[in-house]
Automatic annotation (TrEMBL):
Active site residues of this protein: 121 (proton donor), 267, 375 (proton donor), 468
A cellular component annotation (GO) from this entry: endoplasmic reticulum
Catalysed reactions, semicolon-separated: N(4)-(alpha-D-Man-(1->2)-alpha-D-Man-(1->2)-alpha-D-Man-(1->3)-[alpha-D-Man-(1->2)-alpha-D-Man-(1->3)-[alpha-D-Man-(1->2)-alpha-D-Man-(1->6)]-alpha-D-Man-(1->6)]-beta-D-Man-(1->4)-beta-D-GlcNAc-(1->4)-beta-D-GlcNAc)-L-asparaginyl-[protein] (N-glucan mannose isomer 9A1,2,3B1,2,3) + 4 H2O = N(4)-(alpha-D-Man-(1->3)-[alpha-D-Man-(1->3)-[alpha-D-Man-(1->6)]-alpha-D-Man-(1->6)]-beta-D-Man-(1->4)-beta-D-GlcNAc-(1->4)-beta-D-GlcNAc)-L-asparaginyl-[protein] (N-glucan mannose isomer 5A1,2) + 4 beta-D-mannose; N(4)-(alpha-D-Man-(1->2)-alpha-D-Man-(1->2)-alpha-D-Man-(1->3)-[alpha-D-Man-(1->3)-[alpha-D-Man-(1->2)-alpha-D-Man-(1->6)]-alpha-D-Man-(1->6)]-beta-D-Man-(1->4)-beta-D-GlcNAc-(1->4)-beta-D-GlcNAc)-L-asparaginyl-[protein] (N-glucan mannose isomer 8A1,2,3B1,3) + 3 H2O = N(4)-(alpha-D-Man-(1->3)-[alpha-D-Man-(1->3)-[alpha-D-Man-(1->6)]-alpha-D-Man-(1->6)]-beta-D-Man-(1->4)-beta-D-GlcNAc-(1->4)-beta-D-GlcNAc)-L-asparaginyl-[protein] (N-glucan mannose isomer 5A1,2) + 3 beta-D-mannose
SUPFAM superfamilies xrefs: Seven-hairpin glycosidases (SSF48225)
Signal peptide (from-to): 1-15
Named cofactor requirement(s): Ca(2+)
Protein name per UniProt: alpha-1,2-Mannosidase
Residues involved in Ca(2+) binding: 564
Length: 573
């Protein structure tokens, strides 16, 4: 018996909060597609050639004018983010170039003085990328690199980077400050709070580092910080079981609000709860239990069906117990996360609900002129029925950044249960708690017909090379073997290639509901385009491998788990 399967069975026997679902009736099979694999590789190669020629070793390519940017401290974010995808695609020249470069990075300083370092972004991109490269090249892809010292340097550099980031944990609670500086001196920002995702999305990478080094220091630090999120205080910060607020005090570990969602600023905290259980089901049973609580509350309290398209399912955000009928591209990972949990917990209910969420996010792609989904979208709940009025739109919001999300603050006390009056969210004026108050069912006049047909309207119509919909297509395909998800992925990658490709690479577009994306909004090729978009698009069309999510293990989903940047690391069991 595979050791991992034995440990999985043992973990279920020790503590299982819900009955296991029925095993898969028959083995799920998959079909590869060489033509589509090669097409995705061509997109990667074009993006990489542009970056390598005009921007390497800077962080990002500016494809319109062949310039470069250093938004991630000038350590070569695109190169590190591209490594694990290049390995899976078996592109030896690219892998060699990156593994020759990484040992030369000075992770003790930034090129610019007082350059802010995001502990969250540095962890998921740099630390995650190097650990993934190490696990892959130390294992199934060792043949791609002949210089063993370059493989070992991936782990050495991971330790160096983590050691330099330790200054972030120098707080009264040892919850990390998300912003630190290395140059001219190592110091933290002195912020009084940190966010749910930026605290809760370190634990996988830092635990993996500890396990590889056989040094518990890194795991202990991040797991200690996570403990404040797993046992949230005060109780009012948990308006629904398992669903918590966003901001946490670094002084006492208490939540400062009761607002949140599955979108930017909160998303990957919930993502990592089940992924830590996948990583090691014996050490992280409590993480599993908290994911189950959050998932059950999401199904019970947050699942929403648009008034004009009751066949669709989205997850609302919350401010206390008041729902906000808005979501975003960043949140579209949630379908894949529910599907992964369904496989890991042998629970078909979670899997099937995840597939419903995938259908909802797919609808945001199918409805637009570019066949790409928007950054932010709104809808009205089913209780509105046909009682809908229109009004002129408010000014649009700007792009959402993962470390600077659209976070909603309470109008008065952060722990209020119900608003004194209807609140304004974007273009929709609603009293969000349907059970407690009537909903003011207003749609922007210019998008009334669009909403009637499609079940949502565009709050922010930009697209910034986001991966989350493709990510959920990947999990949906791996869980079902249904080729429709391959077709959806192909439609998406064709649209992304046709719409965002410009000059020497790819960049953000202004309006997904205009043919061709309207125009280019921002001259920047994000590093996660290499790490996430092209990895998920590629893996959905390739042959079986040990790194693929396994739906046939009766709870054992494989030897690898993906971090939130799609860097895959070996599981501990």
């Amino acid at each position: 018996m595979h050791t991992g399967i034995f440990l999985w069975i043992l973990s279920l026997a020790v503590a299982s909060p819900l009955p296991a679902g029925p095993p898969t009736a028959s083995k799920i099979t998959f079909q590869s597609n060489k033509f589509r694999q090669d097409a995705v590789k061509e997109i990667f190669t074009h993006a990489w050639k542009g970056y390598y020629q005009y921007a390497f070793p800077h962080d990002e390519l500016h494809p319109v004018d062949n310039g470069f940017g250093d938004s991630r401290n000038g350590w070569g974010a695109s190169a590190v983010d591209a490594l694990s995808t290049a390995i899976l695609m078996e592109l030896p020249e690219v892998v060699t170039n990156i593994t020759n470069y990484i040992p030369t990075i000075n992770f003790s300083a930034t090129k610019r003085p007082m350059d802010e370092i995001s502990v969250f972004e540095t962890t998921i991109r740099y630390l995650g990328g190097m650990l993934s490269g190490y696990d892959l090249l130390d294992g199934p892809f060792a043949h791609l690199v002949s210089n063993r010292s370059n493989i070992d340097a991936l782990l050495t550099q991971s330790k160096t980077l983590a050691d330099n980031l330790l200054i972030a944990f120098d707080t009264p609670t040892r919850i990390p400050d998300n912003t630190v500086f290395f140059t001219p001196n190592k110091t933290r920002s002195g912020d009084l709070t940190n966010g749910l995702a930026t605290i809760g999305t370190l634990v996988l990478e830092w635990t993996r580092l500890s396990d590889l080094l056989r040094n518990p220091k890194y795991a202990r630090l991040t797991q200690h910080a996570e403990s404040f999120l797993l046992d949230p205080q005060p109780p009012s910060s948990e308006p629904f079981p398992g669903l918590v607020g966003t901001y946490v005090s670094l002084a006492d570990g208490k939540f400062q609000d009761a607002s949140g969602g599955w979108g930017g600023g909160d998303d990957s905290f919930y993502e990592y709860l089940i992924k830590m259980f996948v990583y090691d089901p014996l050490r992280f049973r409590k993480y599993r239990d908290r994911w189950i609580a959050a998932a059950d509350s999401s199904i019970t309290f947050l699942a929403s069906h648009p008034s004009s398209r009751p066949d669709l399912t989205f997850l609302a955000a919350w401010d206390g117990k008041n729902l906000q009928y808005q979501s975003e591209h960043l949140a579209c990972f949630n379908g894949g996360n529910f599907i992964l949990a369904g496989l890991a917990l042998r629970n078909e209910g979670y899997r099937d609900f995840g597939l419903q969420l995938v259908d909802g996010c797919r609808a945001t792609y199918a409805a637009t002129a570019s066949h790409i989904g928007p950054e932010v979208f709104n809808w009205l709940p089913a209780s509105c029925g046909t009682n809908i009025t229109t009004k002129a739109p408010l000014p649009p919001k700007g792009p959402v950044k993962r470390d600077d999300p659209l976070l909603k603050a309470a109008a008065t006390s952060p722990y209020r249960v119900a608003p004194a009056a209807p609140t304004v969210t974007g273009n929709v004026r609603v009293a969000h708690n349907e059970a407690a108050a009537a909903v003011s069912c207003v749609v922007p006049a210019a998008q009334a017909d669009f909403y009637a047909k499609n079940g949502f309207w565009l709050e922010n119509p930009t697209y910034d090379l986001r991966p989350e919909v493709l990510e959920s297509y990947y999990y949906a395909y791996r869980a079902t073997g249904d080729p429709k998800y391959q077709e959806w992925a192909w439609e998406a990658i064709v649209a992304i290639n046709e719409t965002t490709r410009v000059g020497s690479g790819f960049t953000m577009i202004k309006d997904v509901n205009k043919v061709g994306g309207g125009s280019f909004a921002y001259n920047n090729q994000e590093s996660f385009f290499f790490a996430e978009v092209l990895k998920y698009a590629y893996l959905i069309f390739v042959e079986e491998g040990e790194w693929q999510v396994n739906p046939n293990g009766d709870g054992w989903v494989g030897d690898w788990v993906f971090n939130t940047e799609a860097h895959l690391v070996r599981t501990a069991w």
